[in-house]
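Q: What structure does this chain adopt?
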Amino acid sequence: MQGPLHQTTLLLAAHGSTEDDRPRKAGEWLTHALREKALFGEVKCCFYKHDPPMHEALESCQSRQIVILPLLMSAGFFAEKVFPKALGLGEAPLENLPASFHLEQREILYAQPLGLHAGMTRLVIQSARQCLEDYPFPRRVDLKDACIALVGHGTTRHSKSRQSAENVVEALLKQKNACHDAKAFFIEEPPLVTEILDWKTTSDHLVVVPFMMADGPHAIEDIPLALGEPTQRVKHCMTHQRPTWRNPTQRSGKHIWVAPPIGRCQQLPSVVIDHVQQLVSSPMP
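A:
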């Protein structure tokens, strides 16, 4: 794809949720933040689960050059099959990303999911460190003395669904003094979030970082429940829009913090911009 970004439409493709409005708000926040940068001709957001539908959003794009960025934390079923079909890009799975299309005199680049960007490791570190700084109880803990439990979605439907989270953990372990230890856990495949409580570490300080785009049901409900929070309390807090986890909470001999999901990091727009700039400046395979 050739041409400056100010002649390009950036279409953010998000999953959304029929159970919670927070995923939609997360997508809208990121859209607004990127518009304020004034780098793109236009920035739009669309959703799989609610309005605006993906195919309608793509049809409404004004530019002849369009970058579609899946706001997903991993490759796999949704990135390669569900989203392309919902966008009207065809029925066949897109196994090799990025992929380019020419539709109605428009050049379309369907990017790799945002979660595959190398900058995600930096966001995980920043998120965990900020959480420890915001809640310095019973004393201030440095991240190098704490473990990171990175929680991805995962699914047995596609082998790629866990790779990005595992890649981030590998990068964390290679960085000297980034954290005491790190391990990936998942909502829908082993090792499950419940296994965090059994994780044998030599540090009793542990930060759970949801490797997710929004503070939706997985982040604010499934994770606290898996870590032992009573269902009634979690439901009550959700109803009254209160935090569903108290930082830190002591469980299984550990002080456990739960950070906001990566998709709520204030530095995320910069990662998006770098991701798109790398794509448009690289020749397509």
